[in-house]
Amino acid sequence: MSLLIFEDALVSQLTPITSARAACCITVGSYRLIDLLLELDVDLVAWLRPYLRDLVALDLPELKQITDEGLPAERGPLLVLNARTTPSIENWRTIKGLLAAPSDGSKGPTGIVWSGDQVAAIVRPTWTWEAIRSAMDTGIESLLLSAQALPRLDVPLELMSYPHEVIAANMRTIGNSLEHRLASGEYRQLQDGVFVAEGAKLGQFVLTETDSGPIIIDQHASVGPYTLLRGPIYIGPRTRILEHAAIKDAVSLGHTTKIGGEVEASVVEPFSNKQHHGFLGHSYLGSWINLGAGTCNSDLKNTYGTVNMEYPFGKSATGMQFLGCVMGDYSKTAINTGIFTGKVIGVCSMMYGFVTSNVPSFVNYARLFGQMTTLPPEVMIATQQRMFSRRKVEQRPCDMQLLHDMYRSTQNERDRFGDALAF
Fold first, then answer.
1. Within 10 A of 403 (CB to CB), how many other CB atoms are there?
2. Residue 103 — very low, low, confident or very high, per pLDDT cuts 50/70/90?
3. Of 41, 136, 202, 215, which is most buried by a Cβ count within 10 Å?
């Protein structure tokens, strides 16, 4: 039994979150879609953007790719799933049901699952692996178009289409996701509502509040003294919560992060640091980010109205009263940086002062001082090497190539700023 995960054209709407990662690797409520799919008894194959394939092949060897040899022996996939599917337990149960054999011994339904006007999944398509491989030159959209004549299956399956929807989904799903984690039996209850894995440490005088959800501290993570933890919270493996921190209300921290200050209702992907005082709220941080001491973001307008996000394709009404920032991988802030409400910050950028507008990728952003200049990929490669060595992570050719590929793919972001950039 096999499942094909595909990235469609709308994956670009999720940038900068998807600039450096496959859509199935976005963290929501402590899980990535790929994590949940790996719990199923199914062979996983992925159709990803070309520049991510080498990176994913090394980081996720369990996930075969269309270009690989030794694809499943079946004629074709049983289920074709959009990589933008929200990694929620509700969606996981739906996917599990679509893969299950009918109890009456029949073949089971064939059809297409829609999420609004977008293709979320196709059940028992007629595609062969050979046909899928041959369509790689024309793109997945040609296959999706050919499948639209299939009957509609009335099955709920939620997709993420915009960056702010990732933040909203994290707050909505984290409670159920943490309950699913606890059902695995890998955690022991340290105190009421607080669960720890092997090697996890809780410092002295830590205040925990679990009325709204559990607190999970994963393997070899540590929480410093005089810290407030208010669930639901997930603290990933080898993460360090520093003393006097306040972590509260739907926070999902990836592995090997360092977190201090106040964090609320946010996702922080692996290897990112918010080590010092300052506020991060209702936000998403990619990997290998560093927030300088005193960095704060606003997540509420002075008018208390809902936040409209400005994306390359236009404004989007989020319907969210609390919404902070979205920051792409490898970006950094200087000390005392202030990020205004609802700002989108690209990958590999450096920020100084007040961030009053969206920030393109690969720039030094210092509008307070009247400066904004391009940041060459060679500078980021050197920075990457230094960051990796601090965490004892090997810098591979595919990691360096990723920076070059992201630089080329984000050129349109810098072009929109025109004369503001001094090349």
1. 22
2. low
3. 215
Which of 120-134, 217-231, 277-291 bottoms out in mean pLDDT, i.e. has the lowest? 120-134
Q: How far, in Å, CA of 187 to CA of 175, rounded?
A: 16
For 252-307, the pLDDT digits (tens) are 999 999 999 999 999 999 999 999 999 999 999 999 999 999 999 999 999 999 99
The answer to whether the CB of 166 falls within 8 A of the CB of 16 is no
Axis-axis angle for helices 397-409, 377-390 (nearest 10)? 140
C-alpha angle with apex 38: 215 to 396, nearest 5 degrees? 90
Task: Tell me the C-alpha distance between 304 and 315, whole Å.
Answer: 19
* DSSP labels, 360-406: -SSEEEEGGGTEEEE--HHHHHHHHHHHHHHTT-PPPHHHHHHHHHH
Q: Which residues of 137-156 are buried (b: 16+ CB within 10 A; e: fewer)?
A: eeebeebbeebeebeebebe
Q: Which residue has the higher pLDDT, 394 or 371?
A: 394
- CA gap 122, 56 in Å, rounded: 24
Non-local (6+) Cβ contacts of 395 within 8 A are 384, 385, 388, 389
Task: List the beta bridge partners of residue 119.
Answer: 114
Residue 9 has a CB neighbour count (10 Å cut-off) of 10
Alpha carbon 194 to chain centroid distance? 25
Write down the pTM of the prediction: 0.95
| CA 51 to each of CA 158, 345, 405: distance values in angstroms, whole numbers, following the listed order | 26, 21, 7
- Cross-strand partners of 339: 297, 355
Tokens of 104: 């009456």
DSSP symbol at 266: -
Continuous H helices in 52-162 = 53-59, 89-99, 129-134, 140-146
* Three-class DSSP category at 314: strand
What distance lies between CA 393 and its chain's CA centroid? Answer: 20
Which DSSP symbol is given to 100? S
Domains defined for the chain, CATH in brackets: 2-146 (no CATH), 163-420 (2.160.10.10)
> Residue 114 — φ and ψ, nearest 5°?
-105, 145
Q: Which helix (H) or strand (E) holds 324?
A: none
Q: Which band of pLDDT confidence, cut at 50, 70 and 90, is reported for residue 70? A: confident
